[in-house]
Design goal:
Length: 224
């Protein structure tokens, strides 16, 4: 069983597309929605979709949202997804296979337009053979899997990171534990890329610069 953790700030058309492709998933999962917006109508709609739902009533950031979602179970492995992606039909089978031996995995991804992605989305079927390479050149933090045991051993997400770097920070922490993240190959996730953050970037930019400094002090790596 997986808990699929989906923080949402705006219930946009991109979010609806994400949920539509999620419905094609075959393996059993629980959908955990954390709503960080303040639109009561959207909150009511999302609460009907989720198996587990929580509203903070304000934007509390990605790390706090992920922590809340991760703490709703002591057993289930974790999948974290953004609200602006498209998922192929057999994506969760690939994640299930990948998490048998690895702590932290992400897929290949693309920013093709919808029509190109639709031509590729179902190249992977239920006969998928696990193909793992790693560490990935870029960790796709908009759709990634984490073994429950990893969350228990590494600990909670660092809530000093509000907008960005939560996933990259965990990437580094996982590697320091001797289990570097891996990348699944053989299927594609489509990412519309920062459709939520772009709506609030003017307000977020100063905080993101602060988070770059936090990351540098913590890991000795400067992210441009």
């Amino acid at each position: 069983m997986f808990d699929i953790i989906l923080p949402i700030l705006f219930f946009s058309d991109y979010t609806k597309k994400t949920l539509e492709t999620l419905e094609r998933t075959h393996l059993q999962y629980r959908l955990v929605i954390i709503y960080n917006g303040d639109n009561d109508k959207d909150g009511d709609s999302l609460s009907e979709i989720a198996e587990i739902y929580h509203s903070f009533g304000e934007n509390v950031g990605i790390a706090k949202s992920w922590n809340w979602g991760a703490q709703q179970s002591e057993e289930n492995d974790l999948i974290f997804i953004n609200d602006d992606i498209l998922l192929p039909q057999w994506w969760l089978e690939a994640f299930n296979s990948g998490l048998e031996d690895d702590w932290m995995i992400c897929p290949q991804y693309t920013r093709w337009d919808d029509t190109v992605w639709i031509g590729k989305r179902d190249l992977v079927d239920n006969t998928l053979v696990k193909a793992i390479v790693g560490p990935p050149p870029y960790f796709a933090g908009f759709c990634w899997g984490l073994k429950r045991e990893a969350y228990k051993q590494i600990g909670a997400f660092d809530e000093d990171f509000f907008y960005w770097f939560t996933d990259t920070d965990y990437y580094f922490r996982c590697g320091k534990m001797g289990m570097p993240p891996k990348q699944l190959q053989g299927f594609w996730i489509h990412h519309y890329e920062s459709k939520t953050l772009n709506q609030i970037m003017d307000d977020a930019r100063e905080q993101i610069e602060k988070e770059k400094d936090i990351f540098h002090k913590k890991h000795g790596v400067r992210i441009l």
